[in-house]
């Protein structure tokens, strides 16, 4: 598991359960429940690179769609509506992707 040692398994399970239904994902609630919201900037940067599956230095829309699966392989994919809302919340510079600094800001806000 990518987040082993950084996040508690029970927090991950509870956060995933909270947004198990389609169109129920809220990034602020998820980050708080999973335990990322209180992490250091350094830990958030590590988390960013777990989500950045293709190691491009950015989290693109297709990676956001599979965001929950980064925490658990059996988790659902985000809906198109959830993915677009998540991207819009994190993409401060409007380039259609979320960079590492945008991600850390998104988690902390």
TrEMBL record:
<feature type="binding site">
    <location>
        <position position="91"/>
    </location>
    <ligand>
        <name>Ca(2+) 2</name>
    </ligand>
</feature>
<dbReference type="Pfam" id="PF13499">
    <property type="entry name" value="EF-hand_7"/>
</dbReference>
<comment type="function">
    <text>In muscle, parvalbumin is thought to be involved in relaxation after contraction. It binds two calcium ions.</text>
</comment>
<dbReference type="InterPro" id="IPR002048">
    <property type="entry name" value="EF_hand_dom"/>
</dbReference>
<dbReference type="InterPro" id="IPR008080">
    <property type="entry name" value="Parvalbumin"/>
</dbReference>
<protein>
    <recommendedName>
        <fullName>Parvalbumin</fullName>
    </recommendedName>
</protein>
<feature type="binding site">
    <location>
        <position position="56"/>
    </location>
    <ligand>
        <name>Ca(2+) 1</name>
    </ligand>
</feature>
<dbReference type="InterPro" id="IPR018247">
    <property type="entry name" value="EF_Hand_1_Ca_BS"/>
</dbReference>
<comment type="similarity">
    <text>Belongs to the parvalbumin family.</text>
</comment>
<keyword id="KW-0479">Metal-binding</keyword>
<feature type="binding site">
    <location>
        <position position="58"/>
    </location>
    <ligand>
        <name>Ca(2+) 1</name>
    </ligand>
</feature>
<dbReference type="GO" id="GO:0005737">
    <property type="term" value="C:cytoplasm"/>
</dbReference>
<feature type="binding site">
    <location>
        <position position="93"/>
    </location>
    <ligand>
        <name>Ca(2+) 2</name>
    </ligand>
</feature>
<keyword id="KW-0677">Repeat</keyword>
<dbReference type="InterPro" id="IPR011992">
    <property type="entry name" value="EF-hand-dom_pair"/>
</dbReference>
<feature type="binding site">
    <location>
        <position position="95"/>
    </location>
    <ligand>
        <name>Ca(2+) 2</name>
    </ligand>
</feature>
<feature type="binding site">
    <location>
        <position position="54"/>
    </location>
    <ligand>
        <name>Ca(2+) 1</name>
    </ligand>
</feature>
<keyword id="KW-0514">Muscle protein</keyword>
<feature type="binding site">
    <location>
        <position position="102"/>
    </location>
    <ligand>
        <name>Ca(2+) 2</name>
    </ligand>
</feature>
<feature type="domain" description="EF-hand">
    <location>
        <begin position="39"/>
        <end position="74"/>
    </location>
</feature>
<feature type="binding site">
    <location>
        <position position="52"/>
    </location>
    <ligand>
        <name>Ca(2+) 1</name>
    </ligand>
</feature>
<keyword id="KW-0106">Calcium</keyword>
<feature type="binding site">
    <location>
        <position position="63"/>
    </location>
    <ligand>
        <name>Ca(2+) 1</name>
    </ligand>
</feature>
<dbReference type="GO" id="GO:0005509">
    <property type="term" value="F:calcium ion binding"/>
</dbReference>
